[in-house]
Amino acid sequence: MAGNRITQREIARMCEVSQGIVSMVLTGAPQSARIPEATRRRILECAASCRYRVNALARQLRRGRSTTVLVVASRTFSFFMESLLRLLELQLIETGFRMMTARVASGAPDVAAQLEPVLEFDYAGVICLDHCAPVRDASVSAVLARHAHVVYLSEPAQDPKAPFIDLDFGAGVAEAVEYLTQARPGPVALCLNGVVDRAMEGRRQGYLEGLERCGIALQPELIWRPSELVPEGFFDGREYNFGWAERIYRELIVPQRPSGVIVWNDQAAVALVKQLTRRNVRIPGEVAVIGYGAGDILGWACEPPLTSISHGDEEIARLLCRRLTELLAGEDAPRRTMVASRLIRRESA
Asked: 20 to 30 A Cα–Cα from 273, which one of 47, 216, 248, 288?
């Protein structure tokens, strides 16, 4: 063997067949259907016991086409993005592709230049995932547009024909407002972070829509938002979440006494739950808390388990993969496909 890695030639010797037959069986070639079942099984069992793996690059070169999909995402951590990457990889594997990820520094002046060397490789297609920065950066979409098969999460700044999956950030918030209003007396509040973007604006619009559906007039003091701008990257820190949780308690919960609070993400919502618990505020008895993101880790680690709003991660991953396969097959893919956020009920509301 070459090092510790077995080759097809060695498997052929052990199974007493030609290397060509081994290759057909292990690569799933159409001609392998003519090979006797007992022989196929012997080869596969031998390969499995020896932990043989197909060389994807060599297979790609032989076929003359790539089976690798490049996924572009931000380096900035988010539970949503990590969940989406995992789900998308599973979807791509199911359709016969491998995933390569390029994590870029969102908002950096050289973000497009970061992609240039990565794009020198051959890919079946490209998926741009970051729903905030790279998609809106015209230089990024201009670079990605050179590839024939590109799909985006959210509308790109400079690629007018590429299909994209759009997110309805407000649908789940409107659903949460209706749910809280019907379940308990008292006003419903909304907490937003200090960033002004379509994700936060979508949450605000969903809140207004929910109030309108319930026939409730807007009370501006029930929308809490810090007046100061927050430095980029500050959102991931423990001090950030617990600092804002203290302020939400002091500036919103105490003076306005809402019966329910919808918070901009799960991290801040968990911090608020901890802050309220420390102050002996019963959840959901006195105040119901709803987060945004609906990740299992934070949701079930919280006590009580956190009711939250899901972006629709699984649907987003499925549709991104479908749009890419449609492009690769030469089919007409709809340019815009909307995925609505939705409420996931647990015990905090």
From this structure: 216
Q: Whole-angstrom Cα distance, residue 263 to residue 245?
A: 10
pTM for the structure as a whole: 0.76
298 C-beta neighbours (distance < 10 Å), count: 19
Confidence of residue 23 (pLDDT cuts 50, 70, 90): confident
Task: Using alpha carbons, list the distances in angstroms from residue 133 to 40, 82, 86, 139, 256.
Answer: 50, 16, 20, 11, 35
Phi, psi of 189 (to 5 degrees): -110, 160
Which amino acid type is present at position 115?
Answer: L
In angstroms, the Cα distances linking 23 to 64, 95, 262, 316 are 17, 21, 57, 36
Pairing assessment for the beta strands 188-191 and 223-224 based on DSSP bridges: parallel
Cα 263-341-243 angle, rounded to 5 deg: 15
Q: What is the pLDDT of residue 107?
A: 66
Residue located via tokens 């949503």? 80
Q: What is the DSSP string of 198-252?
A: HHHHHHHHHHHHHHHHTT----GGGEE--SSPPPTTGGGSHHHHHHHHHHHIIII
Using CA atoms, how far residue 81 sits from 72, 194, 275, in Å, is 11, 20, 26
187 prior amide bond cis, ω within 30: no
Q: Whole-angstrom Cα distance, residue 260 to residue 187? A: 7
Could you give the CA distance from residue 41 to residue 152 in angstroms, rounded to a whole number? Answer: 42
pLDDT interval class at 61 (50, 70, 90): very low
Adjacency order of strands within the sheet including 98-104 = 98-104, 68-74, 125-128, 150-153, 164-168, 336-340
Count CB-CB contacts under 10 A for residue 148.
10
How far is the C-alpha of 140 from the C-alpha of 96, rounded, in Å? 27
pLDDT top residue among 31 and 257: 257
CA dihedral 18, 21, 22, 27 (to 10 degrees): 150
Cβ atoms of 165 and 316 closer than 8 Å? yes
Q: Please, are residues 122 and 90 in contact by the beta-carbon 8 Å criterion?
A: no
Cα(193)–Cα(334) distance, integer angstroms = 33
135 — pLDDT class (breaks 50, 70, 90): low
